[in-house]
Amino acid sequence: xxxxxxxxxxxxxxxxxxxxxxxxxxxxxxxxxxxxxxxxxxxxxxxxxxxxxxxxxxxxxxxxxxxxxxxxxxxxxxxxxxxxxxxxxxxxxxxxxxxxxxxxxxxxxxxxxxxxxxxxxxxxxxxxxxxxxxxxxxxxxxxxxxxxxxxxxxxxxxxxxxxxxxxxxxxxxxxxxxxxxxxxxxxxxxxxxxxxxxxxxxxxxxxxxxxxxxxxxxxxxxxxxxxxxxxxxxxxxxxxxxxxxxxxxxxxxxxxxxxxxxxxxxxxxxxxxxxxxxxxxxxxxxxxxxxxxxxxxxxxxxxxxxxxxxxxxxxxxxxxxxxxxxxxxxxxxxxxxxxxxxxxxxxxxxxxxxxxxxxxxxxxxxxxxxxxxxxxxxxxxxxxxxxxxxxxxxxxxxxxxxxxxxxxxxxxxxxxxxxxxxxxxxxxxxxxxxxxxxxxxxxxxxxxxxxxxxxxxxxxxxxxxxxxxxxxxxxxxxxxxxxxxxxxxxxxxxxxxxxxxxxxx
Length: 505
What we know:
The protein has 3 domains: 5-54, no CATH class; 89-287 and 337-418, Spore Coat Polysaccharide Biosynthesis Protein SpsA, Chain A (Alpha-Beta Complex), CATH 3.90.550.10; 419-505, no CATH class. It has 15 helices and 21 strands.
């Protein structure tokens, strides 16, 4: 197989001629794979992207702009009139928001969009994170829990507005590595009771990894390294995979975007949606308060005339510890980003069609398995040897004219699954936080639980990392029974015993 001269010229003009270094060592099939990989990427786009991020390779959080200012000095908190909070809103107003959100759902105007491209590598598994079982008595995965929340919410909307039209389409963005296994998993479990036509899978794009000179790394002599283009790759994928057209065909007006790993996520939260509709927001973010000044979480703030997420590594200790001038004692920069966003469809379409190419790339310096200078593959590099290019979903905040922030309670809405072991963001903490929430729901409904039930759950999970069933101390309520604590009045005055597992019959 000969090389097309146009390919040779393209590679030369993009400073990527090294991709053909091992051509003479490849068989016919391997050559075909390499050419397919080369033809699948936009070399000019890669060159432009590397030119954009060159400065990031040497910048630090203390680097100054042309005015001699650091981002740390430019940060301002979100103005109060652009924020809302579940703790500072009356029950009556929360109910108004809830009904407005449910009404939009009942009209079929709301869809949810799940960012599910991540594998469970840090959890020690080789399958998508959404399929992970955190050890609940029911053995439900993250996907299963979220699917049942969608079903319950559709039921609530139908009951509230005496209709049968409530449908919440579930758009699921996978990656090259998670697409097939995710689809197979949903088929195997009959879509967890959802209609298959309302679960729409699409795949984000990939970009090759680069060395520090901008050259594409080879995963093998006949393969390019490829990695997903970050959760901000959502906007390109929506445009190129036909998802915008699909949403338009379904008359979607409002989109809730969230990340797969939060076991407490309130999918298509009607209160959040109602708040956004009330404020006429075109873009909004749900946040939680930081637990301490140096918590490793980005914060949403104002920088000059637009809103953005500033990563914790960019904030000085002095700025992180600033508190508000009122008597609350709250941190000044307290809006912890949890990847939970609201967009109007019109805003989302405008971003995809007119702003996606302008969103900047971010870099992640990594130890990337690849072919070394000696032609041998380095499976486990001992040092960082390259970069992956990513875009972030929240970078579109700066495009919004009407941007708002809604503060939720952490213990009700945020418990991410990040780590396979340790004390933070593990299967143990996710399982514990979900059970403690269910205890609070039952107590609020008037149920009588054994003394110190919450403490027992905390202590039991401390010593049974992988199996909650072995200790017999658990409380689990199916999302099909209750979405956010409602529908539990039947437990009022009842004396309940542990273990307790409430499922639909």
